[in-house]
Automatic annotation (TrEMBL):
Signal sequence range: none
Protein's UniProt keywords contain ATP-binding: yes
Occurrences of domain ABC transporter (ranges): 18-250
Gene Ontology molecular functions: ATP binding; ATP hydrolysis activity
Family: Belongs to the ABC transporter superfamily.
UniProt protein name: ABC transporter ATP-binding protein
Organism: Streptomyces buecherae
Chain positions covered by the region annotation Disordered: 1-23
Pfam families: ABC_tran
SUPFAM superfamilies in the record: P-loop containing nucleoside triphosphate hydrolases
Keywords linked to the UniProt accession: ATP-binding, Nucleotide-binding, Transport
Entries under InterPro entries matching the protein: AAA+_ATPase, ABC_transporter-like_ATP-bd, ABC_transporter-like_CS, P-loop_NTPase
């Protein structure tokens, strides 16, 4: 950053919600937890930060929030450098990291009152309304009088989110928000994340669950061993891998021959079903080979085609292809 550049830039929609350049963290023990990370989180996205345990997600989030210093490189939140502009930026950022700190002997509502009272910028005269609105936002109004220790893990997470939402936020940073939750609790958090995104809040959430990213995120980045493997829209990432071609026909021998001639590889026949890898070759104008042409070739050769299509390529296929390792898919 050059001298004289303003620390608090206008939070125009043009600046990314999060941007890191060469962000690196080497812990004192020598462990390189994050290695030269260049992240770009567009405004308005629900951004999934995906990677197996130990891949550097929490370390990255702690650097974004200014909780630990990077060894080298830098991060900008809402256009301003962290940790330098922390005081101006952090009021616009809600965070839920490693579960909320709650007093079990206080009700959900009183826990929020305590959070709100700890914020010197929060006007005490409007506290009740703020706490009520936050409880309402996460669907905890009915349970707000219960002691927090009687809350399920999912309710505790929602209360943590309510605490993060006491003030209007432009960005929410959630570290594994569904970790340890049962399927119902996970669904509730996902629904909430979608609703918050609909309200115009950029949501950055880490997860080791592909399924989750595919369900709620518009964009994703994949980490492995401290390094960024890829990032982009979820649709782009999944499109990077085409599913296997499947043809159903009684004329398998002819079909296999024709498919081979047209560049389909790794062919396998089971009964009347043939599967194979569609040709990776591209036409001269850069567009991928049209599968419809393959179908037409089969028909021209008088192969009786009962079924023709590709299995949907999932984000999981893409990630396994990229990282060479599997991910946990289910909760
Ligand atoms: N305070 C620390 N001191 C030394 N090494 C650490 C520290 N915190 C994390 N690490 C190491 O840095 C690497 C990245 O850890 P990090 O917690 O950022 O990963 P993660 O992707 O968030 O995984 P998890 O979901 O398990 O927290 C791991 O090898 C971890 O053991």
């Amino acid at each position: 950053m050059t001298k004289g550049e303003p620390v608090d830039e206008p939070s125009a929609g043009s600046t990314p919600a999060v941007e890191t350049r060469g962000l690196t963290k080497r812990y004192r023990g020598g462990q390189l937890a994050v290695d030269g990370l260049d992240l770009l989180v567009p405004r308005g996205s629900v951004f999934g930060f995906l990677g197996p345990n130990g891949s550097g997600k929490t370390t990255t989030i702690r650097m974004l929030m200014g909780l630990i210093e990077p060894t080298s490189g830098g991060a900008r939140l809402l256009g301003s450098p962290m940790p330098r502009a922390a005081r101006q930026v952090l009021p616009k950022v809600g965070a839920l990291i490693e579960g909320p700190a709650l007093y079990g002997f206080l009700s959900g509502r009183d826990n929020l009152v305590r959070y709100d009272a700890a914020d010197p910028t929060a006007d005490p005269r409007t506290r009740t309304a703020r706490v009520g609105a936050a409880l309402d936002r996460v669907g905890l109004t009915a349970a707000s009088g219960k002691k927090a220790r009687a809350y399920s893990l999912g309710m505790k997470q929602r209360l943590g989110l309510a605490a993060a939402l006491l003030q209007p936020r432009e960005l929410l940073i959630l570290d594994e928000p569904t970790n340890g939750l049962d399927p119902q609790g996970m669904r509730e958090i996902r629904t909430l994340v979608r609703e918050l995104a609909d309200d115009g809040i950029t949501v950055f959430l880490s997860s080791h669950l592909l399924d989750e990213i595919e369900q709620v995120c518009s964009h994703a980045a994949v980490m492995a061993q401290g390094r960024l493997i890829t990032q982009g829209t979820v649709a782009e990432l999944a499109a990077g891998t085409r599913g296997r071609l499947t043809v159903t026909t009684p004329d398998t021998a002819d079909a296999v021959r024709i498919l081979k001639e047209h560049g389909v590889t790794d062919l396998a026949v089971t009964g009347d079903r043939i599967t194979g890898e569609p040709p990776a070759t591209q036409l001269t104008d850069g567009t991928p080979t049209d599968l419809a042409d393959l179908n037409a070739a089969l028909v021209r050769a008088e192969v009786r085609v009962r079924g023709f299509g590709t299995e949907r390529a999932s984000l999981e296929d893409a990630f396994v292809a990229l990282t060479g390792e599997g991910f946990d898919v289910a909760g």
